[in-house]
User: Which sequence fits this backbone?
């Protein structure tokens, strides 16, 4: 086989029509990276603040309660649930099941719906219990 | 033909693919993901069930074995899974071998540093030194 011969290329990103499965696929990667970089850094900071004393913890709470901090926490909550549901879907796909077009699309949409609902429920509990 | 050259399944996974090694990393990512399904749900529900997120309440929670042991498992598993995932992202987008290895090294160091910091803080809380 000659490697210099012109070969047909598979279609590039630009000519595919976006669908929920493509969106969920890239969101899995984006949310995973965000959870690792921002989420785990916040986990370490949170634990260090609890260990560090009242002043350190008060500083953490002040930043977390600031509108920017809250946005980050709500965003990470959504990222967590999206990665969670999408991850469950991936475990099923890894067994070789769920590739039929309609089923694949349906569960992709369900991860999006599930993550939004779960984010709302999480914050309902976090804020609703009189914190 | 380069990647498809090997005739056997074993040969295909040995030393081939973007990562340069076989199925071990892929499986480990799945093992940690299944563990994290349980551990992350434990964390979210625990935080939601605590009466308030004050330092006193958190210290008492993480001072008990019911808080400290799952939290230890969560820290180790989450940093491991996050590191595995970030390595895959690097493998997919960084094609120059030297840069790829350097980034793997930096990510590994960052993950170990983050996990060590978290575990030390947790130990301080759990053993009543905080």
Assistant:
């Amino acid at each position: 086989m000659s490697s210099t011969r012109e070969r047909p290329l598979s279609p590039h990103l630009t000519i595919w029509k976006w669908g929920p499965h493509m969106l969920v696929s890239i969101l899995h990667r984006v949310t995973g990276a965000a959870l690792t970089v921002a989420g785990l850094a916040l986990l370490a900071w949170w634990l260090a603040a609890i260990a560090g004393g009242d002043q350190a913890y008060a500083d953490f709470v002040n930043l977390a309660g600031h509108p920017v901090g809250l946005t980050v926490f709500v965003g990470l909550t959504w990222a967590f649930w999206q990665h969670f549901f999408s991850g469950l879907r991936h475990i099923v796909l890894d067994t070789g099941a769920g590739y039929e077009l309609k089923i694949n699309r349906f569960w992709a949409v369900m991860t999006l719906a599930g993550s939004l609902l779960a984010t709302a429920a999480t914050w309902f509990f976090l804020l609703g219990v009189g914190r | 033909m380069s990647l498809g050259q090997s005739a056997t399944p074993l040969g295909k996974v040995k030393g081939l693919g973007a990562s340069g090694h076989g199925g071990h990393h892929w499986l480990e990512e799945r093992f940690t993901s299944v563990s994290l399904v349980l551990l992350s749900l434990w964390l979210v529900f625990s935080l939601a069930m605590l009466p308030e997120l004050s330092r006193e309440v958190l210290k008492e929670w993480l001072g008990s074995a019911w808080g400290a042991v799952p939290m230890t498992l969560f820290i180790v598993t989450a940093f491991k899974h996050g590191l595995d995932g970030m390595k895959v992202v690097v493998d997919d987008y960084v094609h120059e071998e030297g840069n790829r290895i350097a980034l793997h090294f930096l990510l590994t160091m960052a993950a170990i540093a983050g996990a060590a910091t978290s575990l030390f803080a947790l130990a301080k809380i759990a053993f009543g030194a905080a």
Notes: Chain B has one domain: 23-126.
